[in-house]
Every structure is written in C-alpha cells, then in structure tokens.
Amino acid sequence: MPRVKREESEDLDRRIASSLKGQDRISLSDVAKSVGLSPSTVHERVVAMHGRGVILGYTAVLEKEKLGYGAGALLMLNVSSELDVEEIGRQLASIPDIEDVYEVGGEPDLVATVWATTLEDLRSFINEKISKIPGVEDVTPLMLMRVYKKSGFTMPARKV
C-alpha cells in the first residue's frame, strides 16, 4: 500500500473527525461515504485516532433544561498566582458538577461551565465550593441565557 503524506493523513483524520462530531450514532459506513473512503480504511483510522488520543470518547448531547437544570453559567476565575492556575484547574475538573474547564490567556485565568437546578443552587455552589478553593481570588459568573450550539451539535429552535 502506498504511504500517505503526513498532510494528507491529517486532512483525512480531520474529515473523519468532522463527520463523527455531534453524530454519536453515525455508522462508520456513513462516515466512509461522506469522506470518500472505504469502511475498513475509516475503521482503521478511527481506531488509530482513539489510540493517539484524538478521539476521547462519544457522548450524548443533553438538553439541560429538560433535565431540570434551569441555571447555567460560565465561571470566570482569577487565581492568586500563575503557579496556582494548573492546580486549581485540576481541582475544578475533579468536581462532578463542572462540565468544562479551560485555562485561557489574559484575564480571567480559568473559565469553567456549570449547570444547577436553580439560581439559588448555582449561587450556593459558587459561594460554598468554588470561592473557597485556596488560591481563587475572584469568580465572575456569566449566566447562560440560551444555548445555540453545544459540542458541535446545533440546538433545535425553540417554539415560542
């Protein structure tokens, strides 16, 4: 079999990943059709992407409000020193109620997403858990008003 150039290989992986994104139930045959490869080639590349840590897993995209989570926020956190950022990021990532944690450039130092059943629960969560982490100087919540796209999945239009 002829060797594929690195750029071509990365392009194939990006096309496969793009087909998989937001489609946790898509068959590899359908992915193969969409990218113009054989199903066996797509299977081999998907297995390889798993092995390299490119594909971390598959998940369902949830409509939080229908599960009773009425309050979502992006938490912008400033920490006391640059040395604390990674440690606090890891602590935040270990909290089950927090969905995503990002270290960002500039201010703030970290951004996390969280959902709670009510605004009062969200306020308590921030005040009792997040603000009390040693090294966290400031937490600014940005309330999520509506989600239009999540994890590559475009949310359905709301009926008014």
Using brief descriptors, characterize the structure shown.
single chain, 160 residues, alpha+beta, Arc Repressor Mutant, subunit A, Alpha-Beta Plaits, 4-stranded antiparallel β-sheet, two-stranded antiparallel ribbon, 6 strands, globular
Could you outline the blueprint of secondary structure elements for this entry?
Layout: H1 6-20, H2 28-35, H3 39-51, E1 71-79, H4 82-93, E2 98-103, E3 110-116, H5 119-130, E4 136-143, E5 149-150, E6 153-154
Antiparallel strand pairs: 1-3, 1-4, 2-3, 5-6
Helix pairs in contact: 1-2, 2-3
Describe this structure in words.
There is one protein chain. This protein is α+β, with helices and mostly antiparallel strands. The protein has 2 domains: 6-51, Arc Repressor Mutant, subunit A (Orthogonal Bundle), CATH 1.10.10.10; 64-145, Lrp/AsnC effector binding domain/regulation of amino acid metabolism (RAM) domain (Alpha-Beta Plaits). 38% of the residues lie in helices and 21% in strands. The chain has helices spanning 6-20, 28-35, 39-51, 82-93, 119-130, and strands spanning 71-79, 98-103, 110-116, 136-143, 149-150, 153-154. The strands form 2 sheets. A 4-stranded antiparallel beta sheet has the order 2-3-1-4. A two-stranded antiparallel ribbon has the order 5-6. A hairpin with a 2-residue loop joins strand 5 (149-150) and strand 6 (153-154). It is globular and about 55 Å long. The model has no long low-confidence stretch (mean pLDDT 87).
